[in-house]
Specification:
Strand content: 15-25%
Oligomer: single chain
Strand order of the largest sheet: 3-2-1-4-5
Order of helices and strands: HEEEHHEHEHHH
């Protein structure tokens, strides 16, 4: 199985974004993580993971409750080794664009848990920075919807557990942790479907 054949020419990329609030125009993006996939022995598996801490853009609003929720108490702390939005997007997008070319895909498509939120923040950051995006601007794969279908639940932690994947509450709401768990869930659901519907794919 080639990944471009399985997803109609799209390259699925799991992503999670941690932010300083709920408004993509006003609140800062603090962390972005992305996970790519490949096929090994007809099974979809995780290939690579990338993550960057990000400095708030000029004039960004920082909601204290959001900072407490995701544990980024000081977005400007030097030990975060954070990049500007532009630097981070360029660094994160480079391997995605390379993978699109290598896999002969047309674009990347975001795999997320309630990806509407992540895609809106990602698109806002792209607009602010002018960085060329590899992602489809509005289409996405939602593991909340897929989780409801496959496991009868929409909460990521519960879906992960029902899929037989380890979940640690103390690591949740880190972009890289959540992106990897989202990616694992996506693999489990796609592979389970493929195993019983191989004649339809």
């Amino acid at each position: 199985m080639k990944i471009n054949q399985r997803f109609r020419g799209f390259l699925p990329v799991a992503a999670d974004i941690e932010t300083a609030g709920f408004d993509p125009e006003k609140n800062a993006v603090l962390e972005i993580a992305m996970v790519t996939f490949t096929y090994v022995d007809a099974k979809l598996v995780i290939k690579d993971s990338f993550a960057e801490n990000i400095l708030p853009f000029a004039g960004a609003e920082l909601n204290p409750e959001a900072l407490e929720f995701n544990g980024v108490f000081d977005p400007y702390h030097p030990l975060r080794y954070a990049l500007t939005e532009k630097e981070a997007l360029e660094k994160l997008f480079a391997p995605i664009m390379k993978e699109i070319k290598n896999c002969k895909c047309s674009r990347a498509i975001l795999v997320g848990h309630n990806p509407w939120f992540d895609l809106h923040f990602l698109n806002a950051a792209i607009k602010r920075t002018g960085v060329k995006s590899p992602f489809h601007a509005f289409s996405s794969f939602d593991t909340a919807t897929l989780g409801a279908l496959a496991y009868g639940h929409t909460v990521l932690a519960e879906i992960v557990k029902r899929a037989g994947i380890d979940w640690q509450d103390n690591h949740a709401h880190s972009a890289i942790y959540d992106a990897n768990k989202t990616a694992r869930v996506f693999c489990e659901i796609v592979n389970s479907w493929d195993s019983i519907n191989s004649d339809k794919i």
